Amino acid sequence: MADVRAFFTTYCSAFIRQDGPAIAKHFANTIQVASDTGDDVTVHVATAPEWRKTIDHLLEMYRAIGFGWAEATALTCEVISPRLVHAHLRWLLQDKDRQPLYEFDALYIMARHTDTFRIIGIAHNEIQRYRRCLAKARRP
Predict the structure, then answer these.
(1) Residue 66, Cβ neighbours under 10 Å: how many?
(2) C-alpha span between 37 and 48 (Å, rounded)
(3) Tens place of pLDDT for every residue, the chain, 140 residues?
(4) CA distances from 20 to 13, 17, 97, 107 (A)
(5) Which strand (E) or helix (H) includes residue 136?
(6) For labelling alongside 111, which of 29, 41, 83, 86 has CA 20 to 30 A away?
(7) Are the CB atoms for 138 and 131 separated by under 8 Å?
């Protein structure tokens, strides 16, 4: 469990720095993402280069809402085997003044191919929360 906490600490730090290459290092060569958009669930499978473009797009989205800080407010972890872990995180995104933007949940499937874990799958409910936040940010 300590290595999972350490993993998400570096993952979170990379988002705070808005460091695309550092974020990408937390992912496997292929990743599956399921997103609840509020209207539907989309499922996307991406290779590392495709996912890197998605990370860059996500960072652009975050800049559009004044993102400055991310914090995992809750973490539960289920060890499936020494090489497979399922983690559930509750994320709080904040602006540069540490004021709340929104919260969302994400489930991560992580695999350890070497000494460190890599994310191989994510399911999350962030999209509809992001859209509401963006709509507020665009209001005069």
Answers:
(1) 15
(2) 23
(3) 788 999 999 999 999 999 999 999 999 999 999 999 989 999 999 999 999 999 999 999 999 999 999 999 999 999 999 999 999 999 999 999 999 999 999 999 999 988 889 999 999 999 999 999 999 988 76
(4) 11, 9, 22, 21
(5) helix 126-138
(6) 41
(7) no
The contacts of residue 99 (CB under 8 Å, 6+ apart) are none
DSSP states of 28-70 as a string? Answer: EEEEEEEEE-SS-EEEEEEEHHHHHHHHHHHHHHHHHTTEEEE
- β-strand pairing of 117-124 with 84-95: unpaired
Nearest by Cα to 73 from 96, 100, 98, 103: 103
Identity of the amino acid at 8: F
Amino acid making up residue 137: A
Nearest to 6 by CA among 85, 120, 96: 85
C-alpha torsion sign, points 113, 106, 41, 37: negative
